[in-house]
Design brief:
Layout lengths: L42 H13 L12 H9 L12 H12 L8 E3 L12 H14 L1 E3 L4 H20 L13 H22 L5 E5 L6 H8 L4 E5 L7 H4 L5 H8 L4 E4 L2 H15 L2 E3 L2 E3 L4 E6 L6 H8 L2 H13 L4 E8 L6 H14 L7 E8 L6 H17 L7 E4 L5 H10 L2 E4 L8 H8 L12 E5 L13 E3 L4 H13 L2 H17 L2 H22 L9 H9 L4 E6 L19 H10 L5 E6 L4 H7 L7 E4 L4 E3 L7 E2 L3 H20 L5 E4 L4 E4 L6 H18 L5 E6 L2 E6 L4 H15 L12 E6 L5 H12 L5 E6 L9 E2 L3 H13 L23
Parallel strand pairs: 1-2, 3-4, 4-5, 5-8, 9-10, 9-12, 10-11, 12-13, 13-14, 15-16, 15-24, 16-17, 24-25, 25-26
Antiparallel strand pairs: 6-7, 7-8, 17-18, 18-19, 20-21, 21-23, 22-23
Helix pairs in contact: 3-19, 5-6, 6-7, 10-24, 12-15, 13-14, 13-17, 21-27, 23-24, 25-26
């Protein structure tokens, strides 16, 4: 991992990417870069042409050949630990800042050395390096072969994941995306990291994994250490599901990420894309808070990273920075400066920026000779045609308008040192960022912080920022937002930035500066750790193995010392062992009806049964249980105890509206899924595909349907939930939980507090087995925490994680037995309800 001996990071956050294994003071890589040249069809023709040229006396440049003497030199050479060129500077600064602010105590970096190590295998030096990093710097080293690292980083990460995550599908003829060869190297490196973590993990440790290079590590650790506390943060953008699904290994990557307890993204858009992608590809239920897996819940948040203002302030005061400020004041006296610093790749939009600047000079001749664009272009590990294209544009602009005293574009195809960088962003009149897609651009944060005027007479410079950067979502429109592909709009933004009056510049800058100081690196680091601790505790408390079994002894005691009791009981899977609500009711659940009738003999008991079935179905089933309350269609209809009429909880106009808009969508998928069917209920729609001709294809169509509805109908307050063999589409605003709250509110009106009772309910019992019962459990537990209800019992029959405070493993028979025991408690005469007798005609078929 990156390391700086003085604990700081004296460099711009976004560093260039030096060629791995290409430094003269480090060993060369032994990797035969995958895939080998023999796999390329054209290689034979090239070799034949080379031999022909050799016969003609034309010599070819020789590739760098490793010699044994080269390896021997490094096997015995002196070495020292220095600050790494590679690595995530924003992460490093955030960790250092959090430690400095007392928000982080002991922590250990785990990473590779950042250089080829095959030449050092079997030497004492390699062991010495590992030991010193561990003992003196709290760093654990992951060793992997040069071949694995090169295939992982140079190929799978940079040629497949990086383009896809930035909306550039590597399908052009010149792409080197050999995913079928480099994937195994990606797996190998991820496994090496996971093995190192598992080997050194101790109970109570927190594991925080970062970025797209290690997407598989959370899942690998989870398999070995199920109880581990794991966080994952993706620093780059996460694309829409339409783009991500193009990856051949999409499922493996998503499942690897879902090994974490908490997954973090820079902004809400990326988190939403991730949730939609998981829902579509893995057919899991996505909620606003995260993803409900079969056996656990994974929380998903968005939390933007920031800079370290304290460290930046300290470095700005250095004499070297002031020296460069003086040089630049003299060099560019009387000129407006637009500055930019980007990696020279297609994602950063350097070409678009230069073309926009060229158009600006064409459209605004009065600004020629008065404005200079300083573009620092950082090298990347790969060479491309973009390099030549950018150079051609720079040459064209300069040859058109330059003279002996003026050069419109200063193009530095190299990085600059930190002092020059700080001087540049301090004296600039505007910073221009035209990234086509970027997770979080921290250069803009550093620029805004340096525009306070403390070290330069220039201050409150404008920020021209691409709308496709994560940073743009933080600044609330106070930046000059641009679409990098709209050259005219970019040219107009340049003009506006240069001609903006001082009052507006200051107003915009103050708001931007405030945002930068709120979203700091230290805040990001500590906030993520706090959230991880919180969700881990919540998830652990909901784990089925951590929830105790229901104690009948305790339950009887709670029951006997209370007098205003409310039971809310799920129907399918809880009171009866029937299957889904789309199945025909087989027989009358006589034992269930008898138990409910026995409980209702005590007038102090109020019972509601909740179900996803239609009102008329529940009426037919429970005709012989008077004084029973019913909740139909998962909370859309409510029938009070003793009443003969149903109350429609949902807004019928809204229901009709969203059903109408969804009809075309669901019909589209129905036509493409032979054997599927659509069931229309009063307040919901169900897409059934269990009987489809081709189940696998139908499951894919169902996932696409759920994703489509959740993407397109969010504003209509409906959501699609993938279930076993069907997709349920129901309103968000009316659930079993809202029905339970309505019941409690009605009881409050009818049964106010008196001398003996402070609340209309002093005993609340909720029993359920499904995912839709969890919200009722959560509401009931909240009533207990707030002290509104004296005794609260929540019981889950499922074998998954739950909000319930108790579980029951005996299923339906266990529930009926428990309720039967409660009904056998002696009821005082004054509280006995007379049993009603109902005679049914002989032909009645229940």
């Amino acid at each position: 991992m990156p390391f700086s001996p003085d604990g700081g990071y004296r460099a711009p956050i976004d560093r260039s990417s030096p060629t791995w294994g290409g430094r003269p003071d480090q060993p060369m890589s032994r990797a035969n870069s995958p895939p080998p040249p023999s796999l390329i069809d054209s290689s034979r023709a090239l070799n034949q042409k080379a031999r022909e040229m050799g016969r003609q006396g034309i010599t070819q440049p020789q590739s760098l050949v490793r010699s044994e003497s080269h390896d021997r030199v490094f096997a015995h050479a002196d070495w020292k630990i220095v600050s790494a060129d590679q690595g995530n500077g924003g992460l490093r600064n955030a960790a250092v800042a959090a430690a400095r602010d007392g928000k982080l105590e002991e922590y250990t970096w785990i990473g590779t050395l950042g250089m080829p190590t095959d030449a050092l295998q079997g030497t004492q030096q390699l062991q010495d390096i590992e030991d010193r990093l561990a003992t003196e710097h709290d760093m654990l080293t992951v060793f992997c072969s040069d071949k694995d690292f090169d295939g992982h980083y140079s190929h799978f990460c940079k040629q497949i994941l990086w383009p896809v995550f930035h909306y550039q599908i590597p399908d052009n003829p010149k792409s080197k995306a050999y995913e079928d060869h480099s994937w195994k190297y990606y797996v190998n490196v991820n496994q090496a990291f996971a093995d190192k973590i598992v080997k050194n993990w101790k109970k109570g440790d927190t594991v925080w994994i970062h970025d797209y290079h290690l997407l598989l590590v959370p899942g690998m650790i989870r398999k070995k250490i199920p109880e581990a506390k794991i966080g994952f943060f993706l620093h780059v953008a996460f694309p829409s599901s339409e783009v991500f699904r193009c990856l051949a290994v999409r499922k493996q990557l998503l499942e690897g990420m879902l090994g974490a307890n908490l997954i973090g993204f820079q902004i809400r858009e990326y988190a939403r894309h991730f949730l939609q992608t998981c829902s579509r590809i893995l057919s899991v239920e996505a909620t606003p808070d995260g993803l409900q897996l079969e056996d656990r819940f994974v929380d998903v948040i968005h939390l933007p990273i920031g800079i370290d203002p304290v460290s930046l302030s300290r470095h700005r005061e250095e004499s070297e920075v002031k020296h460069w400020l003086d040089i630049m004041r003299e060099r560019y006296a009387g000129k407006k400066l637009i500055v930019a610093r980007d990696k020279l790749d297609h994602v950063r939009g350097v070409r678009q920026k230069l073309l926009s600047y060229e158009m600006f000079l064409n459209m605004n001749p009065e600004w020629r000779d008065k404005v200079v664009l300083i573009q620092v272009a950082l090298s990347t590990s790969e060479k491309s045609e973009l390099d030549a294209t950018v150079s051609d544009i720079v040459t064209r602009v300069n040859s058109t308008w330059a003279n002996l005293a003026y050069q419109p574009v200063v193009y530095l195809k190299q990085d600059i040192d930190y002092a020059q960088y700080l001087a540049l962003v301090s004296i600039a009149d505007a910073l221009m960022i035209t990234s086509q897609r970027e997770g979080m651009n921290l250069t803009s944060h550093e620029y805004l912080f340096c525009q306070d005027g403390k070290f330069s007479e220039k201050k409150h410079g404008s920020l021209i920022l691409s709308e496709f950067t994560g940073t743009s979502s933080l600044f609330s429109g106070n930046e000059l937002s641009v679409n990098p592909w709209d050259y005219r709009a970019c040219a107009d933004a340049i003009k506006k930035a240069l001609e903006m009056d001082g009052e507006e510049k200051e107003r915009r800058w103050k708001k931007l500066y405030e945002a930068v100081n709120v979203h700091t690196g230290s805040h990001w680091f500590s906030e993520f750790m706090l959230r991880l601790d919180k969700v881990y505790e919540e998830q652990h408390s909901r784990d089925q193995t951590a929830v105790p079994r229901l104690s009948m002894t305790t339950l009887l005691q709670q029951y006997q010392r209370t007098e205003r009791r409310l039971f809310i009981l799920d129907f399918e899977g809880t009171l009866v062992s029937w299957g889904p609500v789309n199945q025909i009711i087989p027989v009358s659940p006589q034992r269930t009806l008898d138990v409910l009738n026995d409980l209702l003999l005590d007038e102090r008991n109020t019972i509601y049964v909740m179900s996803g079935r239609r009102p008329e179905e529940l009426d037919r089933i429970f005709r012989r249980v008077p004084n029973l309350g019913l909740i139909a269609e998962s909370g859309c209809y409510l029938k009070d105890c003793g009443s003969n009429t149903w109350t429609e909880m949902a807004d019928s106009n809204k229901i009709r509206s969203w059903k109408s808009s969804l009809q075309d969508i669901m019909t589209y998928y129905l036509e493409r899924t032979p054997g599927a069917a659509i069931e229309e209920r009063r307040c919901s729609l169900v897409f059934h595909y269990k009987s489809a001709d081709d189940y696998q294809t139908a499951a894919t169509q169902a996932s696409d349907l759920a994703s489509h509805i959740n993407d397109a109908c969010e504003e209509q307050r409906v959501h699609a939930i993938p279930m076993d063999g069907c997709v349920l589409v129901e309103p968000i605003d009316w659930t079993k939980s809202t029905a339970a709250q309505r019941i409690f509110a009605d009881l409050q009106k009818r049964m106010g507090p008196d001398e003996k009772h402070k609340s209309p309910v002093d005993f609340l019992m909720v029993i359920g087995d499904g995912r839709d019962d969890e919200k009722v459990f959560k509401w009931a537990n909240q009533m207990a925490m707030e002290g509104t209800v004296q005794e609260v019992v929540t019981v889950s029959l499922g074998n998954r994680n739950t909000e319930a405070k108790a579980t029951m493993t005996q299923g339906v028979s266990g529930v009926l037995a428990a309720l039967q025991k409660l009904s056998q408690v002696v009821v005082p005469a004054e509280h006995q309800r007379r049993r009603s007798s109902i005679s049914l005609p002989p032909s009645s078929n229940m």
